[in-house]
Amino acid sequence: MKNNVLKGSLYVALGATSYGMLATFVKIAYKEGFTTAEVTMSQYFLGFLGLLILNLFRREKSVAKPETSGLKSVFKLILAGSSLGLTSTFYYLAVQYISVSVAIVLLMQTVWMGVIFEMLVHKKMPEMRKIISVCIILAGTLLATNLLEESVIINWKGFAFGILAAMSYTATMYSSNNVELHFPVLKRSLFMILGGCIVVAFIFYSSINSQFSFAIFLRWGIMLSLFGTILPPLLFTKGMPLTGMGLGAIVASVEIPVSIAIAYIVLDEPVGFLQWIGVILILFAVVLMNLQKR
After folding, report:
1. pTM of the full predicted structure?
2. Which of 178, 184, 190, 202 has a 20 to 30 A CA-CA distance from 237?
3. 118: which residues sit within 8 A by CB, 6+ positions away?
4. What is the pLDDT of residues 65-76, one digit of tens each?
5. What SS3 class is residue 200?
6. Residues 220-237 pLDDT 10s
7. What pLDDT is stored for residue 67 in this prediction?
8. Greatest CA separation found in the chain?
C-alpha cells in the first residue's frame, strides 16, 4: 500500500514538474523572437498529433457502458477541452508581461476559485478549514506577487491575463474530474486537446500569415507539447488513483516552487525573501485544504 502511494506521488510530482517548466520554455522562445500565437499553436497541434498516434497504437478499455461513448460524449469532451486552450493562451500572454514567479502564483489562484466554484455549483457553504485556507492563499499572493512593495511596478495587463488563466484553469480542473470519466485516458485526453486546438486556432487564426514562423514546431513545439499536453495528463491519471485527490492535490502543488526555481536558475529571475514566504503560505494553505479529517 505504501509503495503504491509512493509510486502515485512520484507520478503526480513528475506531472506537476512538467507543467512547472512550461513558462520558462515560453520565456526563452519569446527571447528568440517567437510569438504567443506560434508558441501556443505549435504546442497544441503537435500535442494533438502525439496523442492521436498514441491512441492508434495503444488500445484501452472503457470503464462504462458502450452506449455512453457516443458523439454526445465526444462533443462534451471537446467543449470541456476548450478551457485548456484558453488557459495556455492567457498564461502565455501573462508571461509576456510579468515574471514566471508572479505568473505561476496567479495561475494557482485556481485553488480558491475552485472553492467558490464548488460552492456555487453545489449550493453549499465550504468548511471553515477551506475558508481559512482561502484567506491564507490571498495573503500569500500579496507577498508572492510583490503587490505590497511600493518600489515594484506591476504590469496590470499581465496581472489580468494571469487571473483569466486561473479562471479558465479552474474550469479545466472541474471538467477533468467530472466530464465523461468513463472514457479511456488516452482517448479522453485526445478529445480534450482537440477542444484546446480548436480554441487556439480560432484565437490566433489571423496570425497565420507570411510572418508566421513554422520553425517553432521543431525548435520548441515538440518540447512544449510533450511537457504541456502529453505527459501531464497521463502521469496525473496514473498517479491520482494511487494517492487519492487530497494527497494528489498537495503533491501537485510542487508545480509552484518548481516553476519559480527553474525560472530563477535558467532565466535568472529575481525572487525576494517575502516572495518565498508568500509561496510557502500558499503551499501551506493547499495542504490545510486537502488534509483529511481523522
Report:
1. 0.85
2. 202
3. 124, 126
4. 444 457 888 888
5. helix
6. 999 999 998 888 878 877
7. 46
8. 61
SS3 state at 32: coil
Other residues' Cβ atoms within 10 Å of the Cβ of residue 182: 13
Q: What is the pLDDT of residues 23-45, one digit of tens each?
A: 999 999 999 999 999 999 999 99
Among residues 85, 84, 68, 87, the alpha carbon closest in space to that of 184 is found at: 68
Percent of the chain's residues with pLDDT above 90: 27
Q: Which residues of 30-45 are buried (b: 16+ CB within 10 A; e: fewer)?
A: beeebbbbbbbbbbbb
Contact predicate 12/171, CB 8 Å: no
CA distance 162 to 106: 5
Cβ-Cβ contacts under 8 Å for 27 (sequence gap 6 or more): 95, 100, 263, 267
CB 165 within 8 A of CB 87: yes
Q: Which three cell numbers stand for residue 230?
A: 502529453
At 152 the pLDDT is: 58
Cβ-proximal residues to 252 (8 Å cutoff; 6+ apart), any chain: 12, 13, 15, 16, 236
Residue with cell 489580468: 160
Reported as type and span, the H/E element at residue 67 is none
Closest CA to 178 of 80, 72, 112: 80
Q: CA 196 from chain center: how many Å?
A: 13
The span from the CA of 2 to the CA of 200, in Å, is 41
What element of type H or E holds 58? none
Q: Which three cell numbers stand for residue 245?
A: 485527490
Residue with cell 515594484: 152
- The neighbour count for residue 120, using CB atoms within 10 Å, is 8
